[in-house]
Specification:
Layout (H helix, E strand, L loop, with lengths): L2 E5 L2 E4 L4 E8 L7 E7 L6 E6 L6 E3 L7 E6 L4 E6 L8 E8 L13 E2 L3 E6 L1
Parallel strand pairs: 2-11
Antiparallel strand pairs: 1-3, 3-8, 4-5, 4-9, 5-6, 7-8, 9-10, 9-11
Length: about 120
């Protein structure tokens, strides 16, 4: 069983940056596709970015292209999301997810393990 714990959320002004981290325990992240999703108030959860089991390629949703960067540290078994040029519309709970298939997909149904989420609030 895999456990995922997100951290690094908080409040920031528009244009600012935040770095989220997902600490994974139970097995190496190298066996899984890893992704970040987010859910804004009153909206469905949506895919933000993901990477295959090998770490390549990565897939970015349009919302984060050019502003968000996913990375992983296999020694620490963590997956990070660096977010810059944040906008109020980025306000959401951000979730880390892992897929046994090892293939990154944009559907949340493809992911077997989820963290509890971390709140990101961007003020204008």
């Amino acid at each position: 069983q895999l456990q995922l714990v997100e951290s690094g959320g908080g409040s920031v002004q528009a244009g600012g940056s935040l770095r989220l981290s997902c600490a994974v325990s139970g097995r190496s992240i190298e066996f899984y596709a890893m992704a970040w999703f987010r859910q804004a108030p009153g909206k469905e959860r949506e895919f933000v970015v993901g990477m295959n089991w090998s770490g390549r390629p990565t897939d970015y949703a349009d919302s984060g292209e050019g502003r968000f960067t996913i990375s992983r540290n296999t020694a620490k078994n963590t997956v990070d999301l660096q977010m810059s040029s944040l906008k109020p519309e980025d306000t959401a709970v951000y979730y880390c997810a892992a897929a046994r298939s090892g293939v990154v997909l944009r559907s949340e149904a493809a992911y077997n393990f989820w963290g509890q989420g971390t709140q990101v609030t961007v003020s204008s």
